[in-house]
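task queued by scheduler; priority normal; single chain, no ligands, no partner chains; default sampling; output format set to structure tokens
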Amino acid sequence: MKDRLRALLAAALQDLDVGAATAGHVRRDGAVLRLGEHAVNCDQLRRVTVLAIGKAARPMAHAVLPALAGLPLRGLCVPPGADDDGSPLPPFEVLGGGHPVPDAGSLRAGGRALELLAGGDARDLVLFLISGGGSALCELPLHSEVTLRDLQILHERLVGCGADIVAMNAVRKRVSALKGGRLALHAAPARQHTILVSDVPRARPDAIASGPTLPDRGDDGDVASTLAADLLADLPPGLRTHLASLSPLPAADDPAFARSTWHCVLDQDAATAALAHQARAAGMVVGIADTRDGDTAARLADQLLAELAALAARNPGRTVAIVAGGELSVPLPPEPGIGGRNQQFVLHVAQRIAGSRIAVLSAGTDGRDGSAPAAGAVADGTTIARAMGLGLDAATAERRCAAHPFFLALHDLVVTEPGNNVRDLRLLVQPG
């Protein structure tokens, strides 16, 4: 069954083709460039600038090239430097950045983005291709006295504080010269269109990559709640000062957004639908769970196992499956081991399903899970017994957030190529 779950995930990831989704939104019809439902007269364009930022930056940038051929075109592609092959993508420049913590490449990319946007006018079109991971990959501090190391400390503390992605990015917006709509200010007065691949809840597209081109939909309370629990006191003095004063973000009625449109081409709903489709095609009775961001592994396991049991009771003799998306919260201990939220979830569930016929998989659609070189993990009712035979203690590994070496020893990691970043996917299956 574990191999079946891996195969179902692989098939679903193939269905989530970010290049095809992007290309389907950007089409050329003679002298008309169609951006979804919006049309642009190419004969009236002075210049087209493309800024692709995020884990899906390269396939998104590559996908728009055919429709933009022959236009006065330039641009910048900012993928994760560690995962990118570094090949050229003419006519775009490629500058890799750091993730999940910004590095010097992130600052170079941020500076270059502003250079490309400088001097624009109303005859220009700026096409933003934004996907998750952009918060770290392309960055510049809002205040000159904030250093790269200050930003790195902030990202490190946020990742380990247990806050959800919307709350973390609410903080990141307040110290960035690019986020929270500020990149749109630099692009004005050009016509702007943003294509999004979402790794955040549907209701908060402004949180994708910390919303560089969209007006912020949150409030100061988002920042205050995230900075609770001594997080603010743990930051460098310069950051504490600026976060305490909260520099205002561009308002929704700012003129910079007057000629700005956006569209999301892939999100969590598309991911769960793709996985559910594959499970149904395999003959399973499938339910899609409505989960809440920020749940702990224990609370989420309670919900999904209960839904699986109820589905099995309604369908005796049938193999049943529960599909879920979204991100759970994993507060890190002072000295965490190697792992990620997906492996942590599977490790917790493995202890709950010991001796049963249930199997579970959880993986990041971007191919990465926290600090581990894997997308996630898979387990079944035999996992804990096999681990004990190898001298592994699941409870200790869970407490230390060290799920990766646990599943590595069992050969139960889920490894995929870096790809779409449309949040995490979970699949729980109970045979009939």
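post-processing summary
- Residues 129 and 195 are 5 Å apart (CA to CA).
- The mean pLDDT is 93.
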